[in-house]
């Protein structure tokens, strides 16, 4: 039991590492934490394109708010 | 689920709900198609190609690799195979999010990749729970810990950086690092809850040194492991005021590792706090299965030893810093003895550290049970050694700080080690291993000292740059000085202490080397203990060497065959070798020798081809030259090789010393060190004495002193003084240098023509001499004898002064004797023409008691004979009993003298003895007074005699008779008393002759 559990953990770890690498090469701008959230979302069946849209939208909005804040 | 949004709008609460709504609606009500795996793979390959086109092949390959890897891992949807929809969905997500991967910062990515790779290593490393950590230096520990700490957190730290970069990609690298640091710091303070850190915290040792506390405080299965907690609870229950506080709970392994670090010389520890002087265990820590009190008592013990170790480290550091630092500013210098000691201690500490490292590895491995008490037992042998060394430090160095000079400190240290070695030596079996430690340390420490001695007694040079040898060369005394032997070398201590202790101590410490007894007392104070029995020989040998050097005869005793071809064994090596022979541990040396013998042939072809060609080409090819070169170079190579391995050799030689069969240390010294020095001493001193006797004619000079000053050359001196006395008697002028010298040279030329140049006589007329007694008339004559340099060390000016006093005295006696002997009867009997006239007139008025002339003449003659008898016995006594027999003894002693010191001593004793026996010493002043009275009386008598009997009244004769009798009786009774006591056997004959001369008086009376 313990062995399989440890194996799973290590696999998950590997998955996360690989994904993180890919995301870095592709310059997605995601950090480990966000990536982990995304992975969990996708696992639960969220459409990746929809998620992409949400992330990009949110980024744009937050950037806009930031610039407006700095202008003020 | 909303981590991403919450992260972004952390400070925009009003917008947060908007975002949530937007996200939920988008995710739930989208109109996108499901992920197409083929499409995803196509775009991946497309990006790879694109990267390749942009000449970023590495990135392309990596991307491919990671995508493959990712797809292979079965992680999602509970399936055992990879390439599920989730995989592709994730890839699609990333691809969609991708922002111009071609133009992304290439460097950064590479760095990240490397770091990530390291992360795996760190994890594997840290998963073991304990890191192997052998501190190299006491001071760096803190930083190392910090480094370790940083290393541990580096991966998560980098993640933070990336997160920041996301917002601001234009930021420079430099500002990025600042950011990184600030992030790291802020993260240090707040307890991290993020995924990476959380993982780390669960898997890495609690940073108890940072004040972190393991909250879990797991309760073990065994009741004994909860002893501490149970006890505290009990305390809390029973004592309402008891408060525990929040104490870090450490494991026993942590305690033990801290102990081991402490013994490895680390000063900044958590469990033990070093306050600059000593270690103290912290009292706010706890161990799960020990109560605080028992823990403290256990730790106290360790702390004590830790303090000792730290003190030793500090001592070594101080010595090193003083010897390599800028010594020009600080007055304090460190002697070689200290350096040698520091070196020996360092060797010990290094070995201890290695051993500690081994124990620590065993602790880390956790394969066997080690508790603190077990550790204590295991460290026991080391701890005993530490105690011994600390004792050495306290006795040798700490107490030596007060001494002003290096020599005192060095002696103190050497004596202290020696004392402690002796102390443990007497303990026998119990301290066997301590002796095994201390003896090599002592040997190493004494090496500079022995080397100094070696240089001094072997080559005649006192090389003592740090002034730590107990003897120093007195620079004021040149070697061509008659006081060389006495003052050329002085004790360091006497120089520095003479101001402080002007009282009795200074006389004890000041060294008067002419006198053996004194020097024995003087040097004993500051010489190292082990050297004291042999110090005198060392000094004599050293001085003899210096003397030989200035005589240019050094080559005779320094058997320096060829500086290059044969390396001479130094005294220290000889000492150690003989020590080995004594202890039967010679085998190591032999193997070394054989190894060297094997190594030499291979080195034979040492000339490069070019050199050989050159030698042949230029027509200077000379096989002999080549052979010579080869031997020289070979010797050099050998030498340099041996230099390299010297350090190892010494320790290798010293350490196999089998202390099992060590005899008492004193015996070791007697058998190993002293014979070497004594051998050298005999060789050098004998040679010096031989040179002085043979090449510098010491014996002839001494004979000349006796011949002329003590008038052993009777005929020569007789012809000199008779002429002189005649002149005095005839009242001719004689008190000028030329006359006297002429007389002397005339008499010398007959038998000692070669001495004419050396012997001169001087007339020194002092005030008060003219109106003195008639005997003192010759005191103005001073003999001068030119004594060349090396001999004047023996026959110094003080001796010459004494010789001269004796000469004057002899001259007085001789003069009286001569005067009395020269009296003629007819002079006494002659008629005084002037007087006879008036006498006839006065005949009638002459005194009634006046006896006839003939009887007066008779009395005068009797008196003369008595005087002559006295003077003759005195003369006999002096010339035969004293000068001759003492001279024979002296010659006998001279033959026996083995070193110059004895030679000087024998001569001084001789001169002193004859000076005393000639009644010139103050002690026998009253005797001399009586004798001088008689002598003066004799001269007075001689004048009266020459005037003729008619001038002599009966009363004058009676006066003279009575005074003479008084003197004689006094002398006779005094001397016979002395003889009865038997204390002065040499006076026997004189006393006897005097007693016989007084006997008739007593018979008559």
UniProtKB/TrEMBL annotation, chain A:
Pfam families: MOZART1 (PF12554). One of its GO terms (cellular component) is microtubule organizing center. The keyword Cytoplasm applies. Keywords: Cytoplasm, Cytoskeleton. It comes from the Eukaryota. InterPro entries: MZT1. It is found in: Cytoplasm, Cytoskeleton, Microtubule organizing center. Belongs to the MOZART1 family. This is Mitotic-spindle organizing protein 1. It comes from Sinanodonta woodiana (Chinese pond mussel).
From TrEMBL, chain B:
Keywords: Cytoplasm, Cytoskeleton, Microtubule. It is found in: Cytoplasm, Cytoskeleton, Microtubule organizing center, Centrosome. The keyword Signal does not apply. Coiled coil: none annotated. Residues 256-599 form the Gamma tubulin complex component protein N-terminal domain. CDD domains: GCP5_NTD. Residues 698-994 form the Gamma tubulin complex component C-terminal domain. One of its GO terms (cellular component) is microtubule. Component of the gamma-tubulin ring complex (gTuRC) which mediates microtubule nucleation. The gTuRC regulates the minus-end nucleation of alpha-beta tubulin heterodimers that grow into microtubule protafilaments, a critical step in centrosome duplication and spindle formation. Belongs to the TUBGCP family. Component of the gamma-tubulin ring complex (gTuRC) consisting of TUBGCP2, TUBGCP3, TUBGCP4, TUBGCP5 and TUBGCP6 and gamma-tubulin TUBG1 or TUBG2. TUBGCP2, TUBGCP3, TUBGCP4, TUBGCP5 and TUBGCP6 assemble in a 5:5:2:1:1 stoichiometry; each is associated with a gamma-tubulin, thereby arranging 14 gamma-tubulins in a helical manner. Gamma-tubulin at the first position is blocked by TUBGCP3 at the last position, allowing 13 protafilaments to grow into a microtubule. This is Gamma-tubulin complex component. It comes from Sinanodonta woodiana. The lineage of its organism: Eukaryota, Metazoa, Spiralia, Lophotrochozoa, Mollusca.
């Amino acid at each position: 039991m313990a062995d399989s559990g440890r194996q799973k953990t290590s696999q998950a770890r590997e998955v996360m590492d690989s994904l993180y690498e890919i995301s870095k090469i592709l310059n997605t701008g995601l950090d480990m934490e966000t990536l982990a959230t995304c992975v969990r979302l996708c696992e639960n069946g969220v459409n990746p394109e929809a998620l992409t849209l949400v992330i990009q939208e949110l980024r744009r909005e937050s950037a806009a708010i930031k610039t407006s804040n700095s202008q003020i | 689920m909303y981590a991403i949004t919450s992260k972004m709008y952390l400070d925009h609460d009003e917008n947060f709900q908007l975002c949530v709504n937007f996200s939920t609606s988008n995710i739930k009500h989208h109109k996108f198609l499901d992920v197409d795996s083929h499409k995803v793979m196509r775009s991946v390959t497309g990006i790879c190609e694109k990267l390749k086109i942009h000449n970023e092949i590495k990135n392309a390959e990596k991307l491919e690799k990671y995508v493959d890897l990712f797809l292979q891992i079965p992680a999602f949807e509970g399936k055992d195979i990879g390439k599920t929809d989730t995989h592709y969905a994730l890839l699609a997500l990333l691809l969609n999010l991708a922002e111009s991967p071609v133009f992304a910062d290439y460097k950064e990515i590479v760095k990240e990749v490397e770091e990530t790779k390291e992360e795996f290593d760190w994890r594997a490393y840290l998963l073991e729970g304990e890191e192997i950590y052998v501190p190299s230096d006491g001071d760096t520990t803190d930083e190392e810990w910090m480094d370790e700490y940083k290393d541990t957190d580096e991966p998560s730290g980098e993640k933070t950086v990336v997160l920041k970069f996301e917002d601001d990609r234009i930021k420079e690298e430099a500002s990025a690092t600042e950011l990184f640091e600030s992030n790291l710091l802020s993260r240090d303070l707040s307890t991290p809850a993020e995924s990476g850190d959380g993982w780390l915290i669960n898997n890495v040792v609690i940073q108890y040194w940072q004040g972190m506390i393991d909250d879990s405080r797991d309760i073990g299965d065994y009741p004994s492991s909860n002893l501490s907690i149970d006890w505290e609870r009990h305390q809390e229950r029973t004592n309402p005021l008891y408060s525990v506080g929040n104490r870090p709970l450490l494991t026993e392994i942590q305690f033990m590792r801290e102990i081991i670090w402490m013994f490895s010389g680390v000063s900044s520890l958590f469990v033990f706090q070093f306050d600059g002087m000593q270690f103290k265990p912290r009292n706010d820590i706890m161990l799960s299965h020990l109560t605080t009190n028992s823990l403290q008592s256990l730790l106290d013990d360790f702390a004590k030893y830790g303090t000792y170790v730290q003190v030793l480290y500090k001592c070594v550091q101080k010595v090193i810093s003083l010897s390599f630092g800028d010594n020009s500013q600080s007055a304090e210098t460190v002697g070689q003895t200290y350096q040698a000691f520091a070196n020996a201690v360092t060797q010990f500490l290094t070995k201890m550290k290695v051993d500690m490292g081994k124990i620590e590895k065993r602790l880390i491995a956790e394969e066997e049970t080690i508790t603190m008490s077990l550790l204590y037992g295991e460290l026991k042998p080391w701890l005993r050694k530490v105690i011994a060394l600390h004792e050495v430090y306290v006795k040798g160095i700490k107490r030596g700080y007060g001494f002003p000079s290096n020599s005192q400190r060095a002696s103190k240290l050497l004596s202290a080690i020696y004392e402690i070695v002796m102390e443990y030596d007497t303990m026998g079996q119990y301290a066997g291993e301590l002796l095994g430690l201390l003896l090599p340390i002592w040997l190493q420490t004494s090496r500079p000292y022995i080397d100094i001695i070696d240089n001094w007694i072997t080559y005649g040079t006192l090389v003592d740059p740090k002034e730590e040898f107990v003897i120093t060369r007195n620079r004021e005394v040149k070697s061509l000085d008659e006081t060389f032997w006495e003052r050329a070398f002085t004790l360091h201590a006497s120089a520095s202490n003479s101001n402080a202790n002007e009282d009795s101590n200074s006389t004890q410490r000041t060294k008067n080397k002419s006198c053996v007894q004194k020097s024995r007392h003087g040097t004993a104070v500051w010489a190292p203990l082990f050297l004291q029995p042999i110090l005198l020989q060392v000094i004599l040998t050293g001085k003899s060497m210096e003397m030989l050097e200035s005589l240019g005869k050094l080559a005779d005793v320094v058997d320096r065959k060829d500086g290059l071809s044969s390396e001479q064994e130094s005294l220290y090596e000889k000492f150690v070798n003989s020590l080995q022979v004594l202890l039967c541990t010679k085998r190591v040396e032999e193997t070394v020798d054989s190894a060297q013998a094997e190594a030499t042939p291979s080195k034979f072809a040492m000339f490069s081809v070019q050199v050989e060609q050159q030698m042949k080409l230029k027509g200077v090819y000379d096989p002999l030259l080549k052979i010579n070169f080869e031997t020289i170079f070979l010797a050099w190579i050998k030498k340099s090789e041996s230099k390299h391995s010297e350090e190892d050799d010494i320790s290798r030689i010293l350490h196999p010393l089998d202390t099992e069969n060590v005899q008492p240390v004193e015996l070791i010294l007697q058998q190993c060190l002293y014979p070497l020095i004594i051998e050298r001493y005999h060789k050098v001193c004998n040679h010096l004495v031989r040179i002085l006797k043979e090449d510098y004619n010491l014996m002839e000079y001494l004979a000349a002193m006796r011949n002329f000053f003590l008038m052993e050359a009777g005929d020569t001196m007789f012809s000199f003084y008779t002429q002189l006395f005649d002149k005095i008697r005839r009242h001719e002028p004689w008190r000028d240098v030329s006359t006297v010298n002429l007389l002397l040279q005339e008499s010398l030329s007959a038998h000692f023509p070669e001495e004419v140049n050396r012997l001169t006589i001087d007339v020194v007329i002092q005030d008060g001499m003219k109106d003195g007694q008639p005997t003192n008339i010759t005191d103005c004559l001073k003999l001068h004898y030119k004594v060349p340099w090396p001999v004047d060390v023996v026959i110094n000016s003080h001796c010459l002064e004494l010789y001269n006093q004796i000469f004057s005295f002899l001259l007085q006696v001789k003069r009286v004797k001569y005067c009395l002997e020269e009296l003629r009867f007819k002079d006494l009997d002659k008629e005084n023409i002037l007087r006879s006239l008036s006498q006839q007139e006065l005949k009638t008025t002459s005194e009634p008691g006046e006896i006839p002339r003939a009887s007066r003449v008779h009395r005068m003659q009797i008196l003369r004979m008595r005087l002559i008898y006295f003077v003759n016995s005195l003369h006999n006594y002096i010339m035969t009993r004293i000068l001759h027999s003492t001279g024979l003894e002296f010659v006998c002693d001279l033959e026996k003298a083995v070193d110059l010191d004895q030679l000087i001593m024998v001569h001084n004793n001789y001169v002193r003895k004859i000076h005393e026996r000639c009644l010139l010493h103050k002690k026998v002043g009253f005797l001399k007074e009586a004798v001088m009275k008689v002598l003066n009386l004799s001269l007075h008598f001689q004048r009266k005699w020459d005037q003729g009997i008619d001038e002599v009244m009966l009363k004058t004769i009676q006066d003279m008779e009575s005074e003479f009798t008084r003197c004689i009786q006094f002398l006779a009774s005094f001397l016979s008393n002395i003889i009865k006591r038997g204390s002065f056997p040499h006076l026997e004959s004189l006393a006897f002759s005097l007693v016989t001369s007084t006997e008739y008086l007593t018979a008559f009376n």
